[in-house]
Amino acid sequence: MDNRVSIIMESRSQNEAFARLAAAAFAAPLDPTVSELADIKTAVSEAVTNAIIHGYGHPNGKVYIDLALEDRLFTVEIRDEGSGIEDIARAREPLFTSRPELDRSGMGFTIMETFMDALEVYSEKGAGTRVVMRKRLKKDS
Known about the structure:
five-stranded antiparallel beta sheet
């Protein structure tokens, strides 16, 4: 079963909840476990929050979400056209945050990596960031 869907939303914090629920609803036809759904929702929430807070920092940007199901592989790509990441390796370090004044934990990429099977981060300073995450959904036994 191959299926794809794309979502474009404003960079507003209230849209984060919609993004996580949309991702979970998209994966639902494959009957994932409760744990798999929770992992997907958590990772999507972190990626969307990063795009909103670190990519833009204002509600006038766009966050793009592309979801895909191929066989039992769930893929989500979240991108923005915001400020970009100067040093991806440093940004992926636990506890690093570019917005300490907002009491950010600096655990976003660590959480994404923990809850998904694969995480790729692409960014260019001043041109935005693209995060691609994959999770293989287990088959029912």
